[in-house]
Write a structure and sequence with these properties.
Number of helices: 7
Radius of gyration: 16 Å
Distance between the termini: 29 Å
Length: about 160
């Protein structure tokens, strides 16, 4: 889950004349829609616990803030963006989205994502196996077993 309210981002978008190009969404990317309870404690352990914490739809959120979860299909439908490039750096949500919402991931021409095996416990090889159906992927920059960056270009 990646969640933030970033007024600085919105201001930068405005200052750079990108209001028609960048659409900030105050939500966390997930394979499912709904809500979750995001901890107000932003240490690393809490970030991981927030991503893998239970989805709550009952309105109860103690010691945190409710965060909207948005599926990739919703982002595409709500924003009507062209599915050219999908960039994900969301501390673990890349596994959830690629493995559980591939029908929408495969709509994009290019993917760029940071993977976090040390958060999910899932080897990046599992992501690459799924992506290889439609994409040619390469590691970019520093690549480690636990984390790194991948660039993919659709081949189908």
């Amino acid at each position: 889950m990646s969640y933030f309210t970033d007024w600085e981002l919105i201001r930068n978008v405005e200052l750079n004349g990108l209001t028609n190009e960048v659409i900030p969404i105050n939500a966390a990317l997930s394979s499912l829609s709904g809500t979750t309870c995001a901890s107000m404690d932003l240490d690393l352990g809490s970030i991981m616990a927030t991503y893998f914490g239970p989805v709550t739809n009952d309105g109860i959120c103690i010691n945190g803030v409710r965060a909207r979860l948005i599926a990739l299909g919703e982002v595409i439908n709500e924003t009507r963006v062209h599915t050219d490039v999908l960039k994900m750096n969301c501390e673990g949500c890349e596994y959830d989205v690629i493995l559980n919402d591939y029908e929408h991931v495969r709509l994009f021409r290019e993917l760029i994502f940071e993977y976090h095996r040390w958060i999910t416990g899932i080897p990046v090889k599992e992501l690459l196996n799924v992506l290889s159906k439609d994409f040619k992927c390469i590691f970019t920059g520093r690549a480690h077993e636990d984390y790194g960056y991948v660039y993919c270009r659709r081949i189908t």
